[in-house]
Protein 1
Amino acid sequence: MALRTAEQYRQGLRDGRVVYYRGEQVEDVTTHEQLSIGVAHTSLDYDLAEDEDHRELFSWADDDGTLHSRYYKHPASAQDLLNRREMIETSTRLSSSTVLLIKEIGTDALFALDLVSRVIDEKAGTDYHERVSAFHQHARDHDLALAVAQTDVKGDRALLPSEQEHPDYYVRIVEERADGIVVRGCKAHTTNTPMVDEIIVLPTRAIGEQDAAYAVAFAIPVNTPGVKLLASPFGASERRSEFHYPVSSKHHLVDTLTIFDDVFIPKERVFLQGEWQAAGFLANTFVEFHRYTAVSYKPPLCDLFIGASALLADYNGIPKVSHVREKLTKLITWTETVRGLGRAAAHDCRITDFGLAVPNVLLTNLAKHAFADSYHEAIQWVQDIAGGLVVTGPDELDMANDELRPYIDQYLGGAGVDADTRLRAMNLVRDLTASEFGGYNQLLAIHAEGSLEAQKITIFRDYDLERCKDLAADAMGVSR
Ligand SMILES: Cc1cc2nc3c(=O)[nH]c(=O)nc-3n(C[C@H](O)[C@H](O)[C@H](O)COP(=O)(O)OP(=O)(O)OC[C@H]3O[C@@H](n4cnc5c(N)ncnc54)[C@H](O)[C@@H]3O)c2cc1C
């Protein structure tokens, strides 16, 4: 099997996995009232690889001519990274700005593991690279959907794992056996875990020798005994109407608390077991690939902000007003800065000795920081142009009431536009910026793929300050 259909993908999720939603165990995520919306959303990945218009971008033929999902292709050039970027931006745009994230993040982790396992093997004489390659091939050949659980619950942020009040604030190895390891702990915010076949677990941070038990990475099927998922219901109370919530009624992500209750991991699926010196290197390498994914999927949401604001400027009769043009210009500048820096990160990639293309770290972080740092301000520009109806408009049941509808039609029209169209534009802005889903997007902007401070640290660390000091010294007429 190389490419699966969407139906085969959904069938694979009916495997006895343990998922809880609002205190109750879910029998079947594909038919569950709320989680099935997420499954329908992620199914698009499989539809696109089948679709005539998108097959070329979303699939790739190996040397034998077998078709695979393009996500599983190791990027070997700037063009491979650009193709990957285009694939992520396209699927996100087709999902009205919500990333699918069932192969993007998993392959980010596979590329990082590919790179880091070679380094560990060389130093420690281990065979992790062989295991990583075998898992990569397995995931590719079975066209698997993958989640990545990296972020630990972390307890007191100022303390190392072994200094915490109890030892399980970071996932750790509790038993080492000849045939594998047993792990315990909990990861937070794991996106789409109920909708994937397997979970890749990575360490969150750099650690010292005393924390070697926390240096652990592995991959396991979601239905492995002891894995328990507590799905966040965030935003579910609102997802009832396409009129009020045109995006989130059809597209949303589901994040979980991912609990490992003494889970056995077979040896061939363990990719890091106690090599504490490599924990930070693996964590950071994953993040660098994943931030490139992030800056590939952000622009479609920015595009929707521009489009909705421009339409509402027209509908409100203010398209030529100077402050409106200024706000639209700022939205365009923000969007194209993120998009342009993302593309530049591919063009300026680094090719490793063994041929893996790594996106430019500085440019990737600049793009992610530019997006996240101005996100809340961008919402202010959008909401300012739209006006208060975003949160005060009538209900769709009022629209369906024959007595009330004439009032709505009479009073809520705009500049050359009927009330229904104007309200739909307001509702789009509400869904994206002023609903529970809008709040989710705000948190996603700030924290997902690492908080703002993490990007600043990377930008400072990766910048060539010495080059600028030399230039300044030259200009001063002194030598260094
Ligand atoms: C919608 C969403 C989806 C996500 N999806 C995934 C996923 O699929 N997989 C995954 O693994 N993770 C995922 N994440 C997790 C994301 O990477 C984290 O939210 C992010 O790294 C911040 O961690 P935190 O939420 O624990 O916040 P904290 O780390 O608690 O951050 C809060 C604040 O504390 C600061 N801080 C924390 N520790 C320190 C310290 N030691 N010194 C100084 N300042 C500190 C931070 O800079 C920040 O300002 C997701 C997050 C969100 C919001």
Note: The longest strand covers residues 180-191.
Protein 2
Amino acid sequence: MNPLLDFSGLPRFDAVRPEHVTPAITELLSRCRTTVERLAADTAAPSWDNFSAPLNDEIEFLSRAWGIVGHLHSVNDVPEWREAYNQNLPEVTRFYSELGQNLDLFRKSKAIQSGPEYPTLSQARRAILDHEVRDFKLSGAELPEEQKPRFQEIQERLAALSAKFSENLLDATNAFSHLVTDEAQLAGLPEDVKEAAAEKAKKDGREGWKFTLHAPSYLPVMQYAEDRDFRETLYRAYATRASEILGTNGRLEWDNSPLMVEILKLKSEEARLLGYGCYAEVSLVPKMADTPEQVAGFLKELGAKARPFAEKDLAELRAFAAAELGLEKLESWDTPWASEKLRQSRYAFSEQEVKEYLPEPKVLAGLFRVIESLFSVRIAPDMAPVWHPDVRFFKVVKQDGSLVGQFYLDLYARETKRGGAWMDEAMARRTLPGGIQTPVAYLNCNFPAPVGDKPATFSHDDVITLFHECGHGLHHLLTEVDELGVSGIHGVEWDAVELPSQFLENFCWEWDVVKDMTGHVDTGAPLPRELFGKMLSAKNFQSGLMMLRQIEFSLFDLLLHWQYDANGQKTVLDLLEEVRDEVAVLRPPAWGRFPQSFSHIFAGGYSAGYFSYKWAEVLSADAYSRFEEASLTNGSVLDAETGRSFWQEILAVGGSRPALDSFKAFRGREPSVDALLRHNGMVGA
Ligand SMILES: [Zn+2]
């Protein structure tokens, strides 16, 4: 039997082979299509039992099997798996996009939503129907027939423009290079950066060091290069990419300026077709934030509170640059370099030294202890077939021994593994006729593997990453929702989905947690308190400046999709200057062309959504502050009572109720920005 068609339990990683993929996916797609056709043609009045349930059941088989294939493609990207994945990807994508356009399904979901059965359904089922109808509407399902072709045309044109925006940016980035032939100009640069630059020059058959605008080459120059002209050359090229300012090897055909205008016009037209006043309103429909006014108010409040700290950061930097670096005027190509000098003079500590205190067994034990103390559960090793010998498998059980969920832990970097860290699901919680299907998660990282017989050691950043992904994992595993469509992270508003992950990161900055999670790899000694103090101070270095920068981007994005008229006289750059007048303390040169490389909003799905980063940080910091308050009375942030409430009100309910309701149920009030400011050292000005 094809192991991808075995849904009796955990994925059969011991048996599944690339040659199983096409037969399994072909069969599952055909079963899904048959079910969709049968349900669409059914003339009986639609109900949850005769329509929603069978449709969701059938699609789950496809998503579970395809999930295994996608997972293996990510963690074991050898040619055979890549081919099996790519061969089936177009058909799977096509099926899901047809599903989203199927008007018969839309009409049936809508009929249930407005029918007599709806009020009798559980909150979770009502939420699933609400989400379905909402998504259909946003993809144009309710438009009058004569408007549909134009709507479709806009979608296709926007997809093409986004792709072109990214291509232009990449081409413009790639076209620039700068050859250094005098070694004296490299002063200050780390050795590995110089070696990489020499390697690149050699590849071109040149003597010297070749620098580019890609991050691993550009950022170290800005941060470390002593030579001011060298920094300026790279900065000017970087800040004008994909614009009408051409520089060396630039081309007018890569100018993103006209694309931005067309994208904004089309988004605005799309919004009006859907019955909204502007695109920002469309963007906010599936999000936790309600209105552009509310988001603007949030950003401005945060900006006003961060501003005095940003001004102080800047004054300190200027004073330091004048006194220690002989720079009377700080240009944009000086600030990262001067900041790095200031940071070193104040908080010098070695990342390498910290790493020796964070061996893997200590870190994992510390992480598990946090979870076990907060949620009164136990994490224990468990058995399952895995895709690589380094992968481990664990179960989470309640105190009465009942199973909550299970997870795979794949910590180390491998050549065949996609970069970064991520949580994904193997199975989601739901109720079946035979009982509850418990959730299973994949936690994937790219940490250095152990060398020799010593355990692997992690940087503090690695540990934060691990906690972050575990936070997503807990959201998936601790759900108590019994319906697939809104269990775990399913159906959670995307400006709230980072709440549990960023929340868990906070414990990495808590001495009570860190001291028990560290032990020197050779001596076993805990991390010195003084070193931890330096790490804490360095964490908040220039946090005011950084926060204002994020607020500048967020407000610019919001206004572009809200009040800005792409048909009017004002240019995109004019608007950016206005936002800077209001928000920025550090002013980039007016000739900079930042919007032309702002792919998040012009090519990345973040249009009128860039604020989500800060929004989620506020929520997670504010949620965490209830644990800090508890620690004032009982002496520890690992408070089981508050943990139980966090589980019940936030993690357990998943997407079955609005995130704001969940937050308020946990915190007892609306979110406040105070905790985030305090965590960033912005208090008492
Ligand atoms: Zn995340």
Note: The radius of gyration is 27 Å.
